[in-house]
From TrEMBL:
Residues 122-248 form the PI3K/PI4K catalytic domain. The lineage of its organism: Eukaryota, Viridiplantae, Streptophyta, Embryophyta, Tracheophyta. This is 1-phosphatidylinositol 4-kinase. Coiled coil: none annotated. It comes from Microthlaspi erraticum. InterPro entries: P4KG1-8, PI3/4_kinase_cat_dom.
Length: 318
């Protein structure tokens, strides 16, 4: 194994070359920065350490994990944050639609964890409050990422804010170890409180969501060196289907988020976890997934008719 590591995910020679080179560079920085004795300096009071270059500037972060099950989720989110042009296995851009930072898991004899490329930023969303100057499409990108991956820790401290030269706040989601949730009710989605979340998805984002392919994604993760569990696939498949159907039916990020949070009080039966709870769990995962998708299709179609007084296939009136 390269660098003497016992394991890496992704394996550097099994991903497109530009991605492999970017991840390899992060590993080299880690090797150079790691003291022969002792540990890397902490970035904060959590499980995150700084990896600095020869100038003393932070180039990436080293994260350790309490539970083994979390270790490969962050690299998986990075790999599946496909660029707008298409699937990352074909379009080897180092950054995808949402700008999830390049991430690699490794295990050595001494330690294990993830290296995450450091992203320069001005603040986090929780520090900006009412001063956030962003675009609806930035919120839509967060919606796609958080819903698709079932992120249960999408609070406003886990979105970086970087103001561009035009004064627009670009939003970058980070910290994805609590993704691919074990249930179907998310904990927090801070962007549902932003007015722009009620804007319709752009045509660019509609196409992106329509082209998502869970089977291809799982095959890509396996090719990159991870034996994906059936539990992971089950939750990823259902969350992705919920997102795709919601966007197809012209729901806004706000509506999608509220249903995923289980916070739609008017008709609670349309909340995602309530929908999935009606699916057939008695005949194995494949039947459960098929049943859950059918229930999602049926329930969201009913939701559109009941809440928007609009039949599927009929565009909303302006």
């Amino acid at each position: 194994m390269e660098f003497g590591f016992e394991e890496t995910f992704p394996q550097l020679d099994l991903v497109p070359e530009p991605i492999g080179e970017s991840l390899r560079e992060m590993i080299l920085y880690y090797i150079q920065a790691k003291p022969k004795k002792g540990k890397l300096p902490k970035l904060s009071g959590y499980n995150v350490c700084k990896v600095v270059d020869e100038k003393g500037e932070i180039c990436c972060l080293f994260k350790t994990y309490t539970h083994e099950k979390y270790t490969k989720l962050e690299p998986a989110v990075y790999l599946l944050d496909h660029p707008p042009q298409g699937h990352r296995s074909v379009f080897a851009s180092c950054l995808g639609l949402s700008g999830v930072p390049p991430t690699i898991f490794f295990r050595s004899k001494e330690e294990s964890g993830c290296l995450v490329k450091y992203v320069g930023h001005d603040s986090v969303a929780g520090e900006v409050n009412d001063g956030l100057q962003t675009l609806p499409e930035e919120i839509q990108k967060l919606c796609v990422t958080h819903i698709r991956f079932g992120c249960t820790d999408a609070h406003d401290g886990n979105t970086l804010v970087k103001r561009d030269e035009k004064g627009i706040d670009r939003l970058i989601p980070v910290d994805h170890e609590e993704s691919f949730n074990n249930g179907f009710k998310l904990g927090t989605l801070w962007w549902t409180e932003v007015a722009a979340s009620k804007e319709a998805f752009s045509s660019k984002l509609v196409k992106y969501v329509r082209d998502l392919d869970v089977e291809r994604d799982v095959a890509f993760l396996k090719k990159a060196g991870w034996e994906v569990s059936s539990s992971f696939t089950k939750h990823f498949d259902i969350f992705t289907h919920f997102l795709k159907k919601s966007v197809e039916l012209l729901l806004s990020p706000y509506e999608i988020g509220i249903l995923a949070l289980g916070a739609f009080k008017r008709f609670p039966n349309y909340n995602l976890h309530e929908i999935v709870n009606t699916a057939d769990r008695s005949h194995g995962d494949s039947i459960f997934i098929k049943s859950a998708k059918e229930k999602i299709d049926q329930s969201l179609t009913e939701y559109v008719l009941k809440v928007h007084n609009r039949r599927v296939g009929k565009k909303p009136s302006k």
